[in-house]
Fold:
Amino acid sequence: MGAGAHPLYRHDESVVHRAPAEVKIVCLLVFVLAVVATPREMFWPFAVYAVIVVAVWRLARMPLRWVLPRMLIETPFLVLAVLLPFAEGGERVGVAGMSLSVSGLWAAWGIVIKGTLGVAAALTVAATTSTTELPAALSRLGVPPVATSVLVLMIRYVDLLAAEAGRMRMARISRGDSPRALHQAGAIAKGIGALFLRSYERGERVYVAMLSRGFDGRTPDLAVIGAPPRAAAAQWVTVMIPAVLAVGVAASAWVLA
Structure:
């Protein structure tokens, strides 16, 4: 994994990769807000949103075989959505011999489609933005330096924790552990506890190392340390096109509702 990369980053040289990170973050926020604000009872706006996302994927050269497996992160929310038609009250409707709640069906549809579009848009930004671009982008958007530092460190140490968890799992297997066996749940729980303690101790060591290098509790302005140039007006206009289209679709949906 190269410098500035993270598990969701896809190395390429597309126009989306070259777009300023701060503009992509704002575009993502506006796009998601437009999707969330769209009435769930209308279907055509979500089809248009999907077309916009797929078009950006084509520009970013992100193939579906790379994108779809990484979108499984939303699986827990989909499970919740499946349960809603059975748990909600109110008017019922028969579907395949089952009595389902009408309001639950609408709620499930809203969670599935809006959540999927939100995850797809966020994954697009993550796949085209490296961690080295985040500090400057967040600082330029007015995010406090402390919050920016915490976010960057979190992304950095998530990789370390995942690698250490993999080594601990391999060590258990080499000593006869069977991760899929139910009776090994206790050993897995103890491993999670040990990983937490190691992470806490690593955090203390990192903090002591920062103090020994002159850290006084004030976070420097990360936007001025090797930062790329600020986004030009033309870049803002171009990169924000998907968000502007999404806002137009959401507004049209409310007018026609």
Notes: The chain is about 65% helix and 5% strand.
